[in-house]
Write a structure and sequence with these properties.
12 helices, mainly alpha, 314 residues
C-alpha cells in the first residue's frame, strides 16, 4: 500500500475497533497500527491451515534425475549456481537480480533449517529444493535464449516486465514469486511426492516453512533496498508490509499444495489433468495481472531505482 492508503486502512481498523467497543476514543486506546498488525498476523492462518487435512495420496517414489539421492550437497550446489547467476545480474542492475537475490537468501535459509533438523524429512525437502530451483534455472535459460513461447504465462508476464523495466523492485519481487510459487511449485511437489514411504503426508514439512519465511522478509527487503531499489522497504508502517506479504504467501502455498494434489490425482486421467494444468496456469497468470494493477508495484513508485542501483548494487 502507499503510505496514504495504508494510513486510511489503519484509520479504518481503528474506527472498527472503536465501533465494536461502543465507546469514544480515549488517550489509552491501543495503537491502531498494532491493531492492524494483529488483524493481519499471518500466524492466525496457521491453525486453520494445520486443520486442513491433506488428501490421502498413495506413495510414489521419486525417480527423477535431479538430486536422486537427496544428499544435502544438492542444496550446496543450488546455492553456488544461484550466486553465479546473481553476480552478473547484480553488476548490470538487471531487474532479474531482485528475485535472484531473494531466492538465494531463501535457499540459504532452507539449508540452515535443514542442517538444524527443522524438517521431519530432510531428504524429501532437499529434493524439493533442488527440483524447484532447476525449474527456475530452466525458465531463465529459455527466456534468455529467446524461447519465450516455452515459458509459462505467469513467467512471461514477470520476465517481460523485468526486461521492460515497468515495475518497482517490490513489483518484480511479487511477479517472480507468484510465477515460481503458483505456476511451478505444484508440479515440483507432485513430481517429488506428497506422501512418504510410510504413508504419512509431507504437508507438515510444507507448512512448517511458513514461519521461516516470515523471518526473512524484513532482512531481505532491507538488502534489496540497500543494493537495488531504495523504495523496496519504504512502504512501511512497522511490520505491516511484512505481515501482508506473509499472509499472501501462506495463501499461495496452501493453494499450491491443493493444486499438487489435483495433479497427482489426475496423473492417469489426461482430460482432467489438462483441466488442472489450465487452472494452474490461469490462476498464476491472473495473480500476475492483479499485481500489475497495484500502484506501489509499478516503476513510477521508484523512479530513481536504476540510478541508485548503478552505485549501490554491491
Amino acid at each position: 500500500m502507499r503510505p496514504s492508503l495504508k494510513a486510511a486502512v489503519v484509520g479504518l481498523t481503528a474506527a472498527l475497533a472503536l465501533g465494536t467497543l461502543g465507546t469514544p476514543a480515549q488517550a489509552t486506546d491501543p495503537d491502531p497500527t498494532a491493531a492492524l498488525n494483529a488483524l493481519l498476523n499471518p500466524s492466525l492462518e496457521d491453525p486453520v491451515i494445520a486443520l486442513l487435512p491433506a488428501f490421502p495420496m498413495p506413495y510414489r517414489p521419486y525417480n527423477g534425475p535431479i538430486c536422486a539421492s537427496g544428499d544435502p550437497q544438492c542444496i550446496v550446489d543450488v546455492i553456488a549456481e544461484m550466486k553465479a547467476r546473481l553476480a552478473p545480474e547484480a553488476a548490470s542492475c538487471d531487474h532479474d537480480a531482485i528475485f535472484g537475490l531473494a531466492y538465494l537468501r531463501v535457499t540459504e535459509n532452507v539449508k540452515a533449517a535443514a542442517d538444524n533438523g527443522y524438517f521431519h524429512d530432510r531428504k524429501w525437502l532437499t529434493q524439493i529444493d533442488a527440483v524447484f530451483a532447476k525449474k527456475y534455472f530452466d525458465t531463465m535459460d529459455a527466456w534468455t535464449a529467446g524461447n519465450k513461447t516455452s515459458v509459462p504465462h505467469a513467467w512471461r508476464i514477470a520476465l517481460q516486465a523485468s526486461d521492460d523495466r515497468t515495475m518497482s523492485g517490490l513489483g518484480d519481487f511479487m511477479l517472480n514469486m507468484n510465477a515460481h510459487i503458483n505456476n511451478d511449485f505444484p508440479y515440483v511437489l507432485e513430481q517429488v511426492g506428497l506422501t512418504a514411504a510410510d504413508g504419512t503426508t509431507h504437508k507438515p514439512d510444507h507448512n512448517a516453512y511458513n514461519d521461516r519465511l516470515d523471518s526473512l522478509y524484513h532482512p531481505v527487503f532491507d538488502e534489496e533496498a540497500a543494493r537495488f531499489d531504495p523504495m523496496f522497504n519504504k512502504f512501511d508502517i512497522g511490520p505491516v508490509d511484512d505481515l501482508v506479504v506473509s499472509t499472501i504467501m501462506r495463501g499461495w502455498r496452501e493453494m499450491v499444495w491443493r493444486h499438487a494434489e489435483a495433479l497427482a490425482a489426475t496423473r492417469n486421467i489426461p482430460l482432467l489433468r489438462n483441466a488442472i494444468q489450465k487452472e494452474i496456469e490461469e490462476y498464476a497468470a491472473g495473480q500476475a495481472q492483479f499485481i500489475k494493477l497495484i500502484p506501489i508495484f509499478l516503476a513510477a513508485s521508484s523512479k530513481n531505482r536504476d540510478a541508485f542501483c548503478s552505485t549501490h548494487h554491491g
